Amino acid sequence: MQSIKDAAAAFLAHRRIAVTGVSRQPKGHGANVVYQRLRQRGYEVFAVNPNAEEVEGDPCFGDLRAIPGGVEAVVIGTRPEVAEATMRECAELGIGHVWMHRGPGSGSVSPAAAAAGRERGIAVIDGGCPCMFGPTSDPGHQAMRAVLTLTGNVPRRV
What is the rounded end-to-end Cα distance, in angstroms, of the chain? Predict the structure, then answer.
């Protein structure tokens, strides 16, 4: 196991990242916040939503396989019950880093998906948000990280 800080740094070292669950209506959707922040910080980021052709003015892909050139890492921002299928797709595509987004609520974390990913050699972060760490962080997310670490929504080790 490694610290969340080290796992986050390894995840954010990848430059081509997909975000699943990005909504056509961005207000209030955690996946959209992550998508926007990664894009603003210079990442090559890809929106994934099987029900949208365009999100935030960018092309949107129905699944990870549809992304030209593939990705190195994935943020799961969908309902937890969808996370297992996404994790299987990551394993099939050789994607080695997955972050299941979780803020104050239940988020996208699925214990079964996390276990399945780890069994397949995927580095899984099961909670928190990339916006809480390193080059993508901001003071608001840093404060949320402190509080959500205390409540267990941000793991200390992964």
Answer: 5
The candidate with the shortest Cα–Cα distance to 33, out of 58, 56, 62, 9, is 56
Task: Give the span between the Cα atoms of 62 and 42, in whole angstroms.
Answer: 23
Burial of 129 (0-12, 13-18, 19+ CB in 10 A): buried
Phi (first) and psi of residue 37, to 5 degrees: -65, -45
CA pair distance 144, 147, nearest whole angstrom? 5
Q: Where are the domains of the chain?
A: 4-151
> What's the chain's length in residues?
158
Cα Rg of the chain (Å, integer): 14
Top-tier CATH class for 4-151: alpha beta
User: What would the pLDDT profile of 127-142 be if each residue is shown by its tens digit?
Assistant: 999 999 988 899 999 9
Q: Which residues contact 27 (CB under 8 A, 6 or more apart)?
A: none
Instruction: Tell me which residues of the chain have a pLDDT lower than 70.
Output: 26-28
